[in-house]
Design brief:
Layout (H helix, E strand, L loop, with lengths): L2 H14 L14 E5 L9 E4 L2 E6 L11 E6 L3 E5 L4 E6 L4 E6 L4 E6 L13 H4 L3 E3 L20 E3 L8 H4 L7 E5 L6 E3 L10 E2 L2 E6 L8 E8 H6 L2 H4 L6 H16 L11 E2 L15 H9 L3 E5 L2 E2 L4 E2 L5 E2 L2 H4 L19 E2 L12 H8 L16 E6 H17 L7 E2 L11 E9 L5 E8 L2 E6 L1 H7 L12 E7 L6 E8 L8 E2 H9 L4 H8 L4 E4 L2 E3 L7 E4 L2 H4 L16 H4 L5 E7 L2 E9 L13 E5 L2 E6 L4 E5 L8 E8 L9 E9 L5
Parallel strand pairs: 2-33, 3-16, 19-29
Antiparallel strand pairs: 1-36, 2-32, 3-15, 4-7, 4-12, 5-6, 5-11, 7-8, 9-10, 11-14, 12-13, 14-15, 17-18, 17-30, 20-21, 22-28, 23-26, 24-25, 25-26, 27-28, 30-39, 31-39, 33-38, 34-37, 34-39, 35-36, 35-38
Helix pairs in contact: 6-7, 6-12, 6-13
Length: 677
Amino acid sequence: MFKFYAASFLAASIGLITALPAHAQLVNPLEFSATSTVSAVPVTSYKDFNRIRVGISDDAMTAQEYPNTRLSATGAFTITDEASKTIVFSGDSGEVASVSVNKTGFVITKASGNNTPVKKNPTVPFLQQQSKASVSSFLPPTIPEMALPSTSVQSFQTSSIKGFIPSLLDKPVVGPLLVQTVKPTDHLKITNITRRKIVPEYRGIFEIVRGVSGAPNALSVINILSLEDYLKAVVPNELPMRYGWEAVKAQTIAARNYAIRPRERPWSNFDVCDSQLCQVYLGAQTETPTSNKAISETEGLIALYDGQPILALFSSSHGGYAENYSNAFSDPVTKEFPAPEIPYLKGGPDILGSNPLDLTSEIAAKAFWSDQTVQSFDVSSPLYRWSKHWTREEMETALNEGLLDVSKEPSTKAFINPIFKPGQSIGTLRNLKILQRGVSGKAMVLQVEGSNGSWLVRKEFLIRRALRNQGKPLPSANIVLNLQRNPLTQELEAISVNGGGFGHGVGLSQLGASWMSGHGFSYIQIVQHYYPGVSIGSIPVIVGDEMSNSTVTQLSPSSVVSMMFSTKANTVQPADSKTAAKYQPAMTRFEVVNNVGTLWLQEGEGGMPTPFNKDPVEVVLNGRHLNVSPDGYRSGIAISEYLQPHQLNSLMLIPDTKHPYRRLKAWVELYPAKTTR
């Protein structure tokens, strides 16, 4: 029943991905020269845009701060006090260190692990070989060049380290603490939490810090690792591998985007959380060969709109019609609802050949969401169409619980009016009414009328929570209310809901992507269908004023050879580290399969001209030094001859050492090799 739609959409999709997005047309090509020689000054450090800090939550995956944590590893591991630059604990596989915090510092004690006896003097041969070790020497090859979270820490005293250091364990240490395995193939573990009933394992390193709440006994565990290693424990937990190869790769793009541009970032000490509030990150033990391969084949690639990483929202299924971002979400900063629109997160039919419908009216929404025969890419969803039922008494109980829950939470109480107070009751339910709908017919504002008052609930997820059924939120807010009344008294007796889809219905439909994958669509076509107008490319790198707070990375000696840059005459490197950071190059890596590419260079922000628009810019692409002369706010040029097909490519942007506060941004966009430009 999908043959006609699939063929039509495939034809349109092929056209879609063979042209530049309308907002990204080439303007004023760059003049550049590719030099085969390098200057005498090596790049010894750079800002790495492929790193991420993940806040690890408690066992219930609801809190990012807790009083203690228990740490172990699959092999030998160490705990280092960053303040004293000293290793304060070293343990073997199965040994457990319990870490807590109080007003004076972090307390580390021995704890029982998996019945493995704790040795009095566990040895770490690797550490004993060095009297002083650089930061990078501790790190696994999967993150070969990552620096410590505190960039001022240059080295650690590691001589004569055997087991606990009694003099340090007799009293708290200042911290923060750095936890890392000795062998790169081993994983860290947190033994007092489980993920799907299994103790989780983690790649990378841990930083243990005081909680941002300021509570004296609260700490947070932050997992610092490469973005690609992070995705290995996200993608298989967000999308079943049976959904299809191209769907898995599309999900990988969306997950990579969301990691570097989450909708909200309320935490000051890490980038993303590990729960469904961000993306589900459950640990290395959940990795699969299929998802790891998809991550490898799309490494470093994201979806871009107007040179910016997109907000790549996704949900299980749309039920046949996607919703506008603005109608489903509030602004994360101002809390304005509806939120400002996002051009690539627009609602519409989830199938080609169907004109947009006006589902904002009650009649149109009822006709669509009660229709079992509507066709779309996600029709195979078990929740494509569904129904729920309540007696009046059951709905009263659900509303009393749901309205109170929404009113209690600081992040949601602004969206219920008036606030529902503890001990309060709606009384006898008299009426339920949807006052506003989105373009998909999604409920945006719900009115609850009871004998004790009237309440308004705004936002789709809060409406789903208020109308809970058997203790669970509704699958979606694509709903039609059916009120059954006593024919004589007109009192409400029962309520039923017809609905469709599962999730917020904005962005990518995972089940829709699965159908497309099984019918010949590529991951790029899937991404560009659900995020219209986007392109696929590298993570943008930024240097200069207000640059990204990315991890500062030390280059390995072998990397220095091909990453050199020229210093401007009579330029003196500033002494303070904050200003010196302006001079650090920024680097990203990305996979190229069979593509042509455009290098984009942006000067400043918002299209405003700067005094340096004509000054040369230095870029290193795959070790090839390019001296670029931009012309205007944003310029682009084809750089296909410099790309390396079927392997990882690197892009480094060198800051203007003469004008350290000059803000520059560079990225590469990729297109099919047969594209006619």
